[in-house]
Design a protein that fits this description.
Elements (H helix, E strand, L loop, with lengths): L6 H16 L3 E6 L6 H8 L5 E5 L5 H16 L10 H11 L5 E6 L4 H4 L3 H12 L5 E7 L2 H9 L11 E4 L5 H11 L5 H11 L3 H9 L5 H8 L5 H14 L3 H12 L5 H7 L6 H9 L4 E4 L12 E4 L2 H11 L2 H5 L3 H31 L2 E8 L17 E8 L4 E7 L8 H14 L5 E7 L5
Parallel strand pairs: 1-4, 1-5, 2-3, 3-4, 10-11
Antiparallel strand pairs: 6-7, 8-9, 9-10
Helix pairs in contact: 1-2, 4-6, 9-18, 11-18, 12-16
Protein backbone atom coordinates (compact mmCIF):
# COMPACT_ATOMS: atom_id res chain seq x y z
CA UNK A 1 0.00 0.00 0.00
CA UNK A 2 1.28 3.45 -0.86
CA UNK A 3 2.04 6.10 1.75
CA UNK A 4 -1.04 8.00 2.94
CA UNK A 5 -1.69 11.11 5.02
CA UNK A 6 0.62 12.43 7.78
CA UNK A 7 0.91 15.83 6.09
CA UNK A 8 0.95 17.71 9.42
CA UNK A 9 3.57 15.44 10.97
CA UNK A 10 5.75 15.59 7.85
CA UNK A 11 5.54 19.39 7.80
CA UNK A 12 6.56 19.51 11.46
CA UNK A 13 9.51 17.20 10.90
CA UNK A 14 10.60 19.19 7.84
CA UNK A 15 10.65 22.40 9.87
CA UNK A 16 12.62 20.76 12.70
CA UNK A 17 15.13 19.32 10.23
CA UNK A 18 15.60 22.78 8.68
CA UNK A 19 16.33 24.21 12.13
CA UNK A 20 18.77 21.41 12.97
CA UNK A 21 20.67 21.74 9.70
CA UNK A 22 20.79 25.56 9.65
CA UNK A 23 21.05 26.41 13.37
CA UNK A 24 21.98 23.59 15.75
CA UNK A 25 21.00 20.03 16.62
CA UNK A 26 17.42 19.20 17.53
CA UNK A 27 15.89 16.18 19.30
CA UNK A 28 12.40 15.01 18.32
CA UNK A 29 10.53 12.15 19.99
CA UNK A 30 8.00 10.16 17.97
CA UNK A 31 5.70 7.82 19.87
CA UNK A 32 2.59 5.79 19.13
CA UNK A 33 1.28 2.28 19.44
CA UNK A 34 2.81 -0.62 17.55
CA UNK A 35 1.85 -0.71 13.83
CA UNK A 36 0.89 2.98 13.73
CA UNK A 37 3.43 3.79 11.01
CA UNK A 38 6.12 5.66 12.93
CA UNK A 39 9.08 4.29 11.00
CA UNK A 40 7.46 4.75 7.59
CA UNK A 41 6.56 8.34 8.39
CA UNK A 42 10.01 9.18 9.80
CA UNK A 43 11.84 7.68 6.81
CA UNK A 44 9.44 9.47 4.45
CA UNK A 45 10.40 12.75 6.15
CA UNK A 46 14.09 11.95 5.67
CA UNK A 47 13.92 11.25 1.95
CA UNK A 48 16.61 12.97 -0.15
CA UNK A 49 18.63 14.02 2.91
CA UNK A 50 21.60 12.23 4.54
CA UNK A 51 20.19 9.77 7.08
CA UNK A 52 21.55 7.25 9.56
CA UNK A 53 18.88 4.76 10.62
CA UNK A 54 19.68 2.68 13.73
CA UNK A 55 17.25 0.01 14.89
CA UNK A 56 17.71 -0.95 18.55
CA UNK A 57 17.02 -4.68 18.63
CA UNK A 58 17.16 -6.53 21.92
CA UNK A 59 20.75 -7.71 21.64
CA UNK A 60 24.18 -7.54 23.23
CA UNK A 61 25.44 -3.94 23.24
CA UNK A 62 28.78 -4.68 21.58
CA UNK A 63 27.12 -6.75 18.82
CA UNK A 64 24.60 -3.97 18.26
CA UNK A 65 27.31 -1.31 18.10
CA UNK A 66 29.27 -3.29 15.50
CA UNK A 67 26.19 -3.23 13.27
CA UNK A 68 25.71 0.48 13.97
CA UNK A 69 29.32 1.25 13.02
CA UNK A 70 28.84 -0.45 9.65
CA UNK A 71 25.54 1.36 9.05
CA UNK A 72 27.06 4.77 9.83
CA UNK A 73 30.02 4.13 7.51
CA UNK A 74 27.69 3.15 4.65
CA UNK A 75 25.19 5.97 5.25
CA UNK A 76 27.60 8.89 5.64
CA UNK A 77 30.66 7.65 3.76
CA UNK A 78 32.94 7.93 6.77
CA UNK A 79 35.05 5.34 8.54
CA UNK A 80 33.79 4.21 11.93
CA UNK A 81 35.94 1.61 13.74
CA UNK A 82 33.96 -1.65 13.97
CA UNK A 83 35.61 -2.36 17.33
CA UNK A 84 33.49 0.24 19.14
CA UNK A 85 31.55 -1.79 21.69
CA UNK A 86 29.42 0.74 23.56
CA UNK A 87 26.71 3.11 22.39
CA UNK A 88 28.17 6.14 24.16
CA UNK A 89 31.18 6.01 21.83
CA UNK A 90 28.91 5.49 18.81
CA UNK A 91 26.87 8.54 19.79
CA UNK A 92 29.98 10.65 20.44
CA UNK A 93 31.30 9.70 17.01
CA UNK A 94 28.02 10.72 15.36
CA UNK A 95 27.94 14.07 17.15
CA UNK A 96 31.56 14.74 16.13
CA UNK A 97 30.55 14.09 12.51
CA UNK A 98 27.69 16.52 13.07
CA UNK A 99 30.19 19.36 13.56
CA UNK A 100 30.86 19.48 9.82
CA UNK A 101 28.01 17.41 8.30
CA UNK A 102 24.25 17.89 8.54
CA UNK A 103 22.31 14.62 8.74
CA UNK A 104 19.28 12.89 10.21
CA UNK A 105 19.94 10.38 12.98
CA UNK A 106 16.97 8.06 13.53
CA UNK A 107 17.10 5.74 16.56
CA UNK A 108 14.16 3.34 16.31
CA UNK A 109 12.76 1.42 19.30
CA UNK A 110 14.72 3.77 21.52
CA UNK A 111 13.16 2.36 24.69
CA UNK A 112 14.94 -0.97 24.13
CA UNK A 113 18.10 0.45 25.71
CA UNK A 114 16.29 -0.16 29.01
CA UNK A 115 16.75 -3.87 28.33
CA UNK A 116 20.29 -3.59 26.96
CA UNK A 117 22.08 -1.00 29.08
CA UNK A 118 20.00 1.58 30.94
CA UNK A 119 23.06 3.79 31.50
CA UNK A 120 22.92 4.65 27.79
CA UNK A 121 20.41 7.39 28.57
CA UNK A 122 22.58 9.20 31.10
CA UNK A 123 25.61 8.84 28.80
CA UNK A 124 23.63 10.29 25.92
CA UNK A 125 22.50 13.20 28.10
CA UNK A 126 26.07 14.24 28.80
CA UNK A 127 27.14 13.93 25.17
CA UNK A 128 24.05 15.75 23.87
CA UNK A 129 24.50 18.64 26.30
CA UNK A 130 28.10 19.10 25.18
CA UNK A 131 27.52 18.88 21.42
CA UNK A 132 23.96 20.02 20.60
CA UNK A 133 24.72 23.75 20.19
CA UNK A 134 27.75 23.27 17.92
CA UNK A 135 26.46 20.46 15.66
CA UNK A 136 23.80 19.92 12.98
CA UNK A 137 22.22 16.56 13.80
CA UNK A 138 18.48 16.09 13.39
CA UNK A 139 18.02 13.39 16.03
CA UNK A 140 14.71 11.51 16.00
CA UNK A 141 14.05 8.97 18.77
CA UNK A 142 11.14 6.65 18.06
CA UNK A 143 9.50 4.06 20.30
CA UNK A 144 6.46 1.78 20.41
CA UNK A 145 6.17 1.32 24.17
CA UNK A 146 4.41 4.53 25.12
CA UNK A 147 4.90 4.26 28.88
CA UNK A 148 8.67 3.77 28.58
CA UNK A 149 9.07 6.58 26.05
CA UNK A 150 7.07 8.84 28.33
CA UNK A 151 9.27 7.85 31.27
CA UNK A 152 12.51 8.48 29.35
CA UNK A 153 11.62 12.00 28.23
CA UNK A 154 8.84 13.24 30.55
CA UNK A 155 9.86 11.90 33.97
CA UNK A 156 11.91 14.62 35.68
CA UNK A 157 14.03 11.99 37.47
CA UNK A 158 15.31 10.61 34.15
CA UNK A 159 18.52 11.96 32.52
CA UNK A 160 16.90 12.89 29.20
CA UNK A 161 14.08 14.85 30.82
CA UNK A 162 13.71 18.25 29.16
CA UNK A 163 16.09 17.43 26.30
CA UNK A 164 13.56 16.89 23.50
CA UNK A 165 12.48 19.86 21.40
CA UNK A 166 9.24 18.27 20.19
CA UNK A 167 7.13 15.20 20.94
CA UNK A 168 4.95 13.83 18.13
CA UNK A 169 2.38 11.24 19.14
CA UNK A 170 1.07 9.42 16.10
CA UNK A 171 -2.58 8.45 15.98
CA UNK A 172 -4.71 6.28 13.68
CA UNK A 173 -5.87 7.56 10.29
CA UNK A 174 -8.87 9.89 10.21
CA UNK A 175 -12.15 8.69 8.71
CA UNK A 176 -11.56 10.65 5.49
CA UNK A 177 -8.26 8.83 4.96
CA UNK A 178 -10.03 5.47 5.35
CA UNK A 179 -12.45 6.55 2.62
CA UNK A 180 -9.58 7.55 0.34
CA UNK A 181 -7.79 4.24 0.86
CA UNK A 182 -10.91 2.21 0.10
CA UNK A 183 -11.68 4.35 -2.93
CA UNK A 184 -8.19 3.76 -4.31
CA UNK A 185 -8.33 0.01 -3.79
CA UNK A 186 -12.04 -0.77 -4.20
CA UNK A 187 -14.02 2.12 -5.76
CA UNK A 188 -17.31 0.23 -5.51
CA UNK A 189 -17.07 -0.11 -1.72
CA UNK A 190 -20.25 0.13 0.34
CA UNK A 191 -20.77 1.98 3.64
CA UNK A 192 -20.65 -1.40 5.40
CA UNK A 193 -17.23 -2.09 3.86
CA UNK A 194 -16.00 1.23 5.26
CA UNK A 195 -17.49 0.44 8.66
CA UNK A 196 -15.81 -3.00 8.65
CA UNK A 197 -12.41 -1.45 7.89
CA UNK A 198 -12.90 1.01 10.75
CA UNK A 199 -14.30 -1.66 13.10
CA UNK A 200 -11.43 -4.11 12.66
CA UNK A 201 -8.46 -1.74 12.26
CA UNK A 202 -9.50 1.47 14.00
CA UNK A 203 -7.45 3.29 11.36
CA UNK A 204 -4.12 1.64 12.29
CA UNK A 205 -2.05 1.85 9.07
CA UNK A 206 -0.30 -1.53 9.21
CA UNK A 207 -3.55 -3.45 9.69
CA UNK A 208 -5.12 -1.53 6.81
CA UNK A 209 -2.09 -2.18 4.62
CA UNK A 210 -2.21 -5.93 5.27
CA UNK A 211 -5.91 -6.11 4.37
CA UNK A 212 -5.60 -3.91 1.26
CA UNK A 213 -2.49 -5.71 -0.02
CA UNK A 214 -4.38 -9.01 0.27
CA UNK A 215 -7.49 -7.67 -1.52
CA UNK A 216 -9.68 -7.83 1.58
CA UNK A 217 -12.22 -5.09 0.93
CA UNK A 218 -15.47 -6.44 2.36
CA UNK A 219 -16.40 -7.51 5.89
CA UNK A 220 -16.44 -11.17 4.91
CA UNK A 221 -13.06 -11.00 3.18
CA UNK A 222 -11.51 -9.18 6.14
CA UNK A 223 -12.78 -11.71 8.68
CA UNK A 224 -11.70 -14.69 6.56
CA UNK A 225 -8.19 -13.25 6.24
CA UNK A 226 -7.80 -12.35 9.92
CA UNK A 227 -9.20 -15.66 11.16
CA UNK A 228 -6.98 -18.15 9.37
CA UNK A 229 -4.07 -20.39 10.44
CA UNK A 230 -0.87 -18.44 11.15
CA UNK A 231 -2.66 -15.10 10.84
CA UNK A 232 -0.70 -12.27 12.47
CA UNK A 233 -3.99 -10.91 13.79
CA UNK A 234 -4.55 -13.91 16.09
CA UNK A 235 -1.48 -13.12 18.23
CA UNK A 236 -1.30 -9.38 17.66
CA UNK A 237 -3.19 -8.50 20.83
CA UNK A 238 -0.87 -10.59 23.00
CA UNK A 239 2.23 -9.06 21.44
CA UNK A 240 0.87 -5.54 21.82
CA UNK A 241 -0.11 -5.95 25.47
CA UNK A 242 2.93 -7.92 26.65
CA UNK A 243 5.17 -5.32 25.02
CA UNK A 244 3.40 -2.53 26.90
CA UNK A 245 2.56 -4.18 30.24
CA UNK A 246 5.49 -6.56 30.71
CA UNK A 247 5.17 -8.62 33.90
CA UNK A 248 1.93 -6.82 34.84
CA UNK A 249 0.22 -8.42 31.86
CA UNK A 250 -2.17 -10.77 33.69
CA UNK A 251 -4.40 -8.45 35.74
CA UNK A 252 -4.67 -5.83 33.02
CA UNK A 253 -5.50 -8.51 30.47
CA UNK A 254 -8.34 -9.76 32.67
CA UNK A 255 -9.75 -6.26 33.17
CA UNK A 256 -9.77 -5.64 29.43
CA UNK A 257 -11.49 -8.97 28.85
CA UNK A 258 -14.21 -7.96 31.34
CA UNK A 259 -14.77 -4.62 29.65
CA UNK A 260 -14.93 -6.26 26.22
CA UNK A 261 -17.55 -8.70 27.49
CA UNK A 262 -19.84 -5.84 28.48
CA UNK A 263 -18.99 -5.44 32.17
CA UNK A 264 -17.99 -1.83 31.71
CA UNK A 265 -18.56 -0.34 35.17
CA UNK A 266 -16.09 -0.45 38.06
CA UNK A 267 -18.55 -2.51 40.08
CA UNK A 268 -19.11 -4.98 37.25
CA UNK A 269 -15.39 -5.42 36.61
CA UNK A 270 -14.72 -5.80 40.33
CA UNK A 271 -17.26 -8.64 40.51
CA UNK A 272 -15.18 -10.55 37.97
CA UNK A 273 -12.25 -10.21 40.39
CA UNK A 274 -14.14 -11.48 43.41
CA UNK A 275 -14.95 -7.89 44.37
CA UNK A 276 -11.26 -7.09 44.76
CA UNK A 277 -10.19 -3.46 44.47
CA UNK A 278 -9.28 -2.65 40.87
CA UNK A 279 -9.39 1.17 41.03
CA UNK A 280 -5.62 1.50 40.76
CA UNK A 281 -5.47 -0.81 37.76
CA UNK A 282 -8.24 1.11 35.99
CA UNK A 283 -6.49 4.40 36.67
CA UNK A 284 -3.21 3.13 35.22
CA UNK A 285 -4.92 1.59 32.20
CA UNK A 286 -6.54 4.95 31.50
CA UNK A 287 -3.83 7.47 32.41
CA UNK A 288 -0.52 5.63 32.00
CA UNK A 289 -1.22 3.13 29.22
CA UNK A 290 -4.13 4.97 27.54
CA UNK A 291 -5.72 1.63 26.64
CA UNK A 292 -9.12 2.43 28.12
CA UNK A 293 -11.20 5.58 28.35
CA UNK A 294 -13.53 6.64 31.12
CA UNK A 295 -16.89 7.73 29.74
CA UNK A 296 -19.37 9.91 31.64
CA UNK A 297 -22.73 11.30 30.52
CA UNK A 298 -22.10 14.57 28.72
CA UNK A 299 -21.69 17.53 31.09
CA UNK A 300 -21.62 15.20 34.10
CA UNK A 301 -19.31 16.29 36.90
CA UNK A 302 -16.00 14.47 37.21
CA UNK A 303 -17.02 13.06 40.58
CA UNK A 304 -20.13 11.37 39.18
CA UNK A 305 -20.47 7.67 39.86
CA UNK A 306 -22.23 7.16 36.52
CA UNK A 307 -19.10 6.05 34.68
CA UNK A 308 -18.45 3.45 32.01
CA UNK A 309 -15.14 2.17 30.70
CA UNK A 310 -14.36 1.47 27.06
CA UNK A 311 -11.37 -0.08 25.32
CA UNK A 312 -9.97 2.85 23.38
CA UNK A 313 -8.34 0.85 20.58
CA UNK A 314 -10.76 -0.65 18.04
CA UNK A 315 -8.52 -3.57 17.18
CA UNK A 316 -8.02 -4.57 20.82
CA UNK A 317 -11.75 -4.24 21.39
CA UNK A 318 -12.37 -6.67 18.52
CA UNK A 319 -9.53 -8.96 19.60
CA UNK A 320 -10.86 -9.34 23.15
CA UNK A 321 -14.44 -9.67 21.98
CA UNK A 322 -13.71 -12.60 19.68
CA UNK A 323 -10.14 -13.96 19.76
CA UNK A 324 -9.87 -14.01 23.55
CA UNK A 325 -13.48 -14.90 24.34
CA UNK A 326 -13.45 -17.78 21.84
CA UNK A 327 -9.87 -18.89 22.38
CA UNK A 328 -11.08 -22.51 22.52
CA UNK A 329 -11.99 -22.22 18.81
CA UNK A 330 -8.46 -21.00 18.07
CA UNK A 331 -6.81 -23.75 20.11
CA UNK A 332 -8.98 -26.40 18.43
CA UNK A 333 -8.17 -24.86 15.02
CA UNK A 334 -11.90 -24.38 14.40
CA UNK A 335 -11.19 -21.13 12.64
CA UNK A 336 -13.90 -21.43 9.98
CA UNK A 337 -16.47 -21.79 12.75
CA UNK A 338 -15.02 -18.75 14.54
CA UNK A 339 -15.07 -16.71 11.34
CA UNK A 340 -18.73 -17.61 10.81
CA UNK A 341 -19.53 -16.69 14.41
CA UNK A 342 -17.94 -13.26 13.92
CA UNK A 343 -19.80 -12.68 10.65
CA UNK A 344 -23.13 -13.60 12.22
CA UNK A 345 -22.52 -11.31 15.18
CA UNK A 346 -21.14 -8.47 13.08
CA UNK A 347 -24.43 -6.56 12.56
CA UNK A 348 -24.86 -6.30 16.34
CA UNK A 349 -21.21 -5.61 17.16
CA UNK A 350 -20.66 -3.08 14.40
CA UNK A 351 -23.65 -1.04 15.52
CA UNK A 352 -21.67 0.01 18.59
CA UNK A 353 -18.66 0.91 16.43
CA UNK A 354 -20.87 2.92 14.06
CA UNK A 355 -21.66 5.23 16.97
CA UNK A 356 -17.94 5.55 17.70
CA UNK A 357 -17.28 6.28 14.01
CA UNK A 358 -19.71 9.21 13.96
CA UNK A 359 -18.26 10.66 17.17
CA UNK A 360 -14.79 10.49 15.68
CA UNK A 361 -16.01 12.10 12.45
CA UNK A 362 -17.59 14.90 14.48
CA UNK A 363 -14.36 15.44 16.42
CA UNK A 364 -12.39 15.62 13.17
CA UNK A 365 -14.71 18.38 11.94
CA UNK A 366 -13.56 20.61 14.84
CA UNK A 367 -17.03 22.11 15.07
CA UNK A 368 -17.75 20.82 18.57
CA UNK A 369 -16.34 21.65 21.99
CA UNK A 370 -17.83 18.58 23.67
CA UNK A 371 -18.92 15.25 22.19
CA UNK A 372 -20.34 12.33 24.12
CA UNK A 373 -23.42 10.37 25.06
CA UNK A 374 -26.03 10.84 27.74
CA UNK A 375 -27.72 8.41 30.06
CA UNK A 376 -29.30 8.12 33.47
CA UNK A 377 -28.98 5.06 35.68
CA UNK A 378 -31.96 2.78 35.21
CA UNK A 379 -32.72 -0.88 35.65
CA UNK A 380 -31.64 -1.56 32.09
CA UNK A 381 -28.16 -0.09 32.45
CA UNK A 382 -27.17 -0.54 36.09
CA UNK A 383 -25.02 -3.50 35.10
CA UNK A 384 -23.36 -1.66 32.25
CA UNK A 385 -25.62 -2.87 29.47
CA UNK A 386 -25.97 -0.68 26.38
CA UNK A 387 -29.65 -0.78 25.55
CA UNK A 388 -30.06 1.52 22.54
CA UNK A 389 -33.82 1.83 23.09
CA UNK A 390 -33.52 2.83 26.73
CA UNK A 391 -35.69 5.96 27.19
CA UNK A 392 -32.97 7.35 29.47
CA UNK A 393 -30.07 7.03 26.98
CA UNK A 394 -28.99 8.98 23.89
CA UNK A 395 -26.25 7.80 21.56
CA UNK A 396 -24.59 11.06 20.53
CA UNK A 397 -24.69 14.57 21.97
CA UNK A 398 -22.42 17.25 20.53
CA UNK A 399 -22.20 20.81 21.82
CA UNK A 400 -21.13 23.23 19.10
CA UNK A 401 -18.02 25.29 19.74
CA UNK A 402 -19.24 28.74 18.71
CA UNK A 403 -22.96 28.76 19.49
CA UNK A 404 -25.54 27.81 22.09
CA UNK A 405 -26.50 24.91 19.91
CA UNK A 406 -26.46 21.16 20.50
CA UNK A 407 -26.59 18.22 18.10
CA UNK A 408 -28.46 15.13 19.32
CA UNK A 409 -28.45 11.92 17.30
CA UNK A 410 -29.63 8.34 17.41
CA UNK A 411 -27.42 5.83 15.58
CA UNK A 412 -28.89 2.88 13.69
CA UNK A 413 -27.36 0.64 11.07
CA UNK A 414 -30.63 0.78 9.16
CA UNK A 415 -33.10 3.66 9.19
CA UNK A 416 -36.07 1.29 9.37
CA UNK A 417 -35.10 0.52 12.99
CA UNK A 418 -35.36 4.17 14.01
CA UNK A 419 -38.30 5.03 16.32
CA UNK A 420 -38.96 8.77 15.91
CA UNK A 421 -41.51 9.04 18.73
CA UNK A 422 -39.25 7.42 21.30
CA UNK A 423 -36.29 9.50 20.12
CA UNK A 424 -38.28 12.71 20.45
CA UNK A 425 -39.19 11.79 24.03
CA UNK A 426 -35.47 11.33 24.77
CA UNK A 427 -34.66 14.71 23.21
CA UNK A 428 -37.31 16.47 25.30
CA UNK A 429 -36.07 14.76 28.44
CA UNK A 430 -32.52 15.90 27.70
CA UNK A 431 -33.75 19.40 26.91
CA UNK A 432 -35.31 19.69 30.35
CA UNK A 433 -32.27 18.16 32.06
CA UNK A 434 -29.45 20.10 30.39
CA UNK A 435 -30.23 22.12 27.28
CA UNK A 436 -33.35 24.21 27.88
CA UNK A 437 -31.48 27.36 26.70
CA UNK A 438 -29.94 25.73 23.62
CA UNK A 439 -31.05 25.42 20.02
CA UNK A 440 -31.34 21.68 19.36
CA UNK A 441 -30.54 19.96 16.08
CA UNK A 442 -31.53 16.29 15.76
CA UNK A 443 -30.75 13.45 13.38
CA UNK A 444 -30.85 9.71 12.88
CA UNK A 445 -27.43 8.62 11.61
CA UNK A 446 -27.15 5.39 9.63
CA UNK A 447 -24.66 3.59 7.41
CA UNK A 448 -25.70 5.83 4.56
CA UNK A 449 -24.44 8.89 6.44
CA UNK A 450 -20.87 7.64 6.75
Amino acid sequence: MKFYNREKELATLAEIRKQAFEEHSRLTVVTGRRRIGKTSMILKSCEDTPTVYLFVSRSNESVLCAKFAKTISQSLGVFVPPAINNFADIFSTLMEIGKHTSFNLVIDEFQEFFNINESVYSEMQGIWDVYKDTTHVNLIASGSVYTLMHKIFMDYSQPLYGRCDRIIKMRPFDTDVLKTILTDHYPEYTPDDLLALYTFTGGVPKYISILMDNCCFTMSQMVDYMIQPDSTFLEEGNILLIQEFGKKFGNYYSILASIASGRNTAMGISEDFGKASIGGHLKRLEEDYEVITKVRPILAKEATQTVRYEIADNFLRFWFRYIVKYQDYVQANSLTALANLIKNDYPTYSGILLERYFKRKMAESQQFRNIGSWWETSKSNKKGNNNVDDPHEIDIVGIYANADKVFIAEVKRQRKNFKPELFQKKVELLRTRLFYKYEIETACLTLEDM
